[in-house]
Amino acid sequence: MPKKTKTTDNLNSKLSLVLKSGKYKLGYKLALKSLRQGQAKMIVISNNCPAVRKTELEYYAILSSSKVLPCPLLVTAA
User: Fold this and answer.
1) What is the pTM of this model?
2) Selection from 62, 46, 42, 64 nearest residue 54 by Cα
């Protein structure tokens, strides 16, 4: 089993904390809405997100002073 990197450990710990609290939103539209309203604290962007959407999310995150965390894992639909 390969060793986990520091980024993966950090992401896993933050995601587990968020999931326990129950305060998260999934999806592009909800992410934009929460960024515009200033409610988002952190945005996790998957690797397979289109470039246009990724730059738009990063732009709104900068305006709302939210953190952007690129997901190092490839997320695929089952």
Assistant:
1) 0.73
2) 46
> What does the pLDDT look like over 63-75, one tens digit per residue?
999 999 887 765 5
State the Cα–Cα distance between residues 49 and 75, nearest whole angstrom: 9
**Length of the chain in terms of residues written:** 78
User: Could you tell me the end-to-end alpha-carbon distance of the chain, in angstroms, rounded to an integer?
Assistant: 23
Dump strand ranges (E) for 1-59. Answer: 42-45
SS3 state of residue 74:
coil
Calculate helix-pair angle for 28-37, 51-63, nearest 10 degrees. 20
